[in-house]
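Please, structure for the following, as tokens.
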Amino acid sequence: MDILVVIAHYLAITVSWIWRLAQLAAVGLGVWALIDTLTHDSSHFIAAGKRTKGFWIGVNAAGIAVVLFMGAASMLGLLGVVANAVYLADVRPALRYYSPVRVRSTIRFPGRGKDQGGRGPRDWSPGR
């Protein structure tokens, strides 16, 4: 009978740690959503048709606060997690469509390493 008590004890500790990790993951999800909201331009929200930047900042901040104070396992905590997940799954991809395109600033020639100097195929200098 003592072995069952030991197993139950360690199982309870394991479940407790899993719930703590789930809570930490829920807070991390909310922080990620809030930081991503802050990095986008407010005009992108309007162009994507996804409410306003202030609205999503409020939703994500409220989601983090509810998860921190009530826990991710409560009904309101679950709604906070869902609100942050909706931002990341629906709004973020729509905003990424309007983000600026980054262009590479250097031209790379195939077959030439960094240590090899010399002229590229478009070098029009004399003596070529």
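The two ends are 90 Å apart (CA to CA). The first helix runs from residue 2 to 39.
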